[in-house]
């Protein structure tokens, strides 16, 4: 699968959020969007990443940046994750894998010698026009906000 590159038009999508509401990328035209893909709700790396975005969310909002998290977990799982860690941003339930496939982040993974399909942790920064400004493929789960802000300087 091809991962879109900086300069490419961000693949359009519509998906359900944690509350079952439809969310589409088009809704965010005119804003910068941090679209971050993560493997699974409530796992250590994913929790660290989400909590860093949570802790820096107000600062990102002041800069006109929206945060959207995407995993293949369902709405109920997202609700628990949001409640448990007080996450203030939207999580998209990509249960049909349309978004992870469109962004090229669904692929073979290897853990303890076992191969399986899953989401490769990747962050896309999408500009106000709906184009990909930056792609972060080596995400620092403890400081993803710093990685984003460094690229936007």
Description:
There is one protein chain. By secondary structure, the chain is an alpha+beta fold. The protein has a single domain (29-151), classed as 3-Layer(aba) Sandwich (Glutaredoxin), CATH 3.40.30. The chain is built from five helices and nine strands. It has helices spanning 44-55, 57-62, 75-85, 98-102, 144-151, and strands at residues 14-17, 22-24, 32-37, 65-71, 90-93, 106-111, 114-119, 122-126, 132-136. It has a seven-stranded mixed sheet. The longest helix has 12 residues, at 44-55. It is globular. The mean pLDDT is 95.
What is the average per-residue confidence, as pLDDT, rounded to a whole number? 95
Taken in chain order, the helices and strands follow as EEEHHEHEHEEEEH
Give me the CATH fold name: Glutaredoxin
Please state the structural category: alpha+beta
Number of domains: 1
Radius of gyration from CA coordinates? 14 Å
Annotated CATH architecture: 3-Layer(aba) Sandwich
**What can be said about the biggest beta sheet?**
7 strands, mixed
| Number of helical segments with 4 or more residues | 5
Question: What are the segments in which pLDDT stays under 50 over at least 5 consecutive residues?
Answer: none
Strand content: 25-35%
Name of the level-1 CATH class: Alpha Beta
Span between N and C termini? 30 Å
């Amino acid at each position: 699968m091809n991962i879109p590159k900086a300069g490419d038009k961000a693949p359009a999508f519509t998906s359900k959020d944690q509350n079952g509401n439809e969310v589409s990328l088009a809704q965010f035209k005119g804003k910068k969007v941090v679209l971050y893909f993560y493997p699974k709700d409530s796992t250590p790396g994913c929790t660290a990443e989400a909590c860093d975005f949570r802790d820096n969310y107000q600062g990102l909002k002041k800069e006109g940046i929206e945060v959207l998290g995407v995993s293949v977990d369902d709405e109920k799982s997202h609700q628990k994750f949001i409640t448990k860690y007080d996450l203030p941003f939207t999580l998209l339930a990509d249960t049909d894998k349309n978004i992870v496939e469109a962004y090229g982040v669904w692929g073979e993974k290897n853990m303890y010698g076992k191969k399986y399909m899953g989401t490769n942790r990747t962050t896309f920064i999408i500009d106000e026009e709906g184009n990909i400004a930056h792609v972060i493929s080596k995400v620092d789960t403890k400081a993803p906000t710093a990685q984003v802000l460094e690229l936007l300087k």
